[in-house]
């Protein structure tokens, strides 16, 4: 598919990003997680936008849209919003990630304060300021919500399908396994989160998501061009987020070496 070919250079920048090889200590992982959590959170809003637009979430109920797409969206929502943790307790992947951050010793104050501000009616800009959210995370969330607020389901689907699929390389899993082997009391939940993320997502969802995007864009060349631009922007924001984490990780190591 043309869009996949055109976005591949950006995908490769993410998969081969230097931040992964820089994470060697628990403190490095903490910094990475403190940036990544915002992508974990706003993924759910993107997914919910698709559920609102492609399934029936109002009363009275009517069958809406394509049945295969409905199944895909509802299946992913169930997997992401109502999964189980290592102890069998029902949790969303976001809540599981927060548990992993707390176990690891990462700071969860910023994300929690941000969400509290948004719940209390603050706009994103004010909530970002009050919680001192990293600048790259702000840009990432803003970009996601631009796509959501566009109201264009084909852009939401494209961003979901091509911009949010699992992009974490094997070397990252190896690093997490290494840390877990020496400090399981700090990394075991994060290791479980990654394993569940792969298990729940799987190739099956990728194929169905691709089919969903194809149906929504149909044969409209302008839709596909717009979808490609939106996807590229989503991937670039991810690169920027990883760049910011990398800079902070390197800065910490330089400071501790002085």
Describe this protein's structure.
By secondary structure, the protein is mainly α. The chain contains twelve helices and two strands, in the order H-H-H-H-E-E-H-H-H-H-H-H-H-H. It has helices at about 1-15, 20, 25-55, 65-80, 95-105, 110-120, 125-130, 135-150, 155-165, 170-180, 185-215, 220-255; strands spanning about 85, 90. A hairpin with a 5-residue loop joins strand 1 and strand 2 (about 90). Helix 1 runs parallel beside helix 12, helix 9 (about 155-165) packs across helix 11 and helix 10 (about 170-180) packs antiparallel against helix 11 (about 185-215). The relative contact order is 0.19.
Furnish the topology, listing elements before pairings.
Blueprint: H1 2-15, H2 18-22, H3 26-54, H4 67-81, E1 83-84, E2 90-91, H5 93-104, H6 109-119, H7 124-131, H8 135-149, H9 153-163, H10 170-182, H11 184-217, H12 221-257
Antiparallel strand pairs: 1-2
Q: Return Rg in Å.
A: 19 Å
- Identify the strand order in the major beta sheet: 1-2
- Overall strand count: 2
Q: How would you state the average pLDDT, rounded?
A: 93
